[in-house]
């Protein structure tokens, strides 16, 4: 089967990110929100791994609805602020704050290294979005 140069370049970039930078490949069905394109299970797993006590505090108040409260708060914030700003400053959900990523610490001795290593980087080759359009590569953080 013949692949054009664009497809070959896309595959080359994806393979490089997977092999050299340990990106994981995201499947289309892992994108649980088709309006905002959240990979919900991965974000919740990141929050539980890095901010267990905060997540448990939210669960204590909202039970099984804690997950829904997180995504509701995230959607509300996205209507007002750009995603990069929310990622940078964190997300407040019903009075508790979550970090949505951990930057690389300046010192390799820092306690924050354990959290930085929990960041999850994903790529989705040929991300299908509204109207059946396809993006060459979609990138996801946590």
Gross geometry: globular
Radius of gyration: 17 Å
- Taking pLDDT < 50 over at least 5 consecutive residues as the criterion, the unreliable ranges are none
Quickly give the structural class: alpha+beta
For the secondary structure, the number of strands is 5
**Mean pLDDT reading:** 92
| Largest β sheet strand count, sense and barrel closure | 3 strands, mixed
| H/E topology pattern | HEHHHHEEHEE
Distance between the termini: 35 Å
Beta-strand fraction estimate: 15-25%
What does this structure look like?
Helix content is 44%, strand content 17%. With 142 residues, it is α+β, with helices and mostly antiparallel strands. It has a domain at 38-120. The model has no long low-confidence stretch (mean pLDDT 92).
Secondary-structure map:
Elements: H1 5-21, E1 24-25, H2 40-50, H3 52-62, H4 66-78, H5 83-89, E2 91-93, E3 96-98, H6 113-116, E4 121-128, E5 134-141
Parallel strand pairs: 1-4
Antiparallel strand pairs: 2-3, 4-5
Helix pairs in contact: 2-3
Summed up:
The protein has 142 residues and is of the alpha+beta class. The protein is 44% helix and 17% strand.
What characteristics describe this protein?
142 residues, alpha+beta, three-stranded mixed beta sheet, two-stranded antiparallel ribbon, globular
């Amino acid at each position: 089967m013949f692949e054009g140069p664009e497809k070959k370049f896309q595959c080359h970039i994806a393979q490089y990110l997977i092999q050299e930078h340990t990106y994981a490949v995201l499947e289309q069905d892992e994108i649980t929100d088709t309006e905002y394109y959240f990979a919900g299970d991965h974000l919740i797993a990141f929050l539980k791994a890095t901010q267990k006590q905060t997540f448990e505090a939210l669960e204590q108040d909202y039970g099984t609805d804690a997950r829904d409260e997180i995504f509701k708060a995230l959607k509300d914030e996205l209507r007002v602020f750009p995603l990069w700003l929310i990622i940078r400053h964190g997300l407040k959900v019903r009075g508790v704050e979550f970090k949505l990523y951990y930057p690389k610490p300046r010192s390799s001795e820092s306690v924050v290294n354990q959290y930085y290593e929990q960041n999850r980087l994903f790529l989705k080759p040929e991300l299908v979005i509204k109207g059946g359009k396809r993006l060459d590569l979609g990138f996801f953080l946590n």
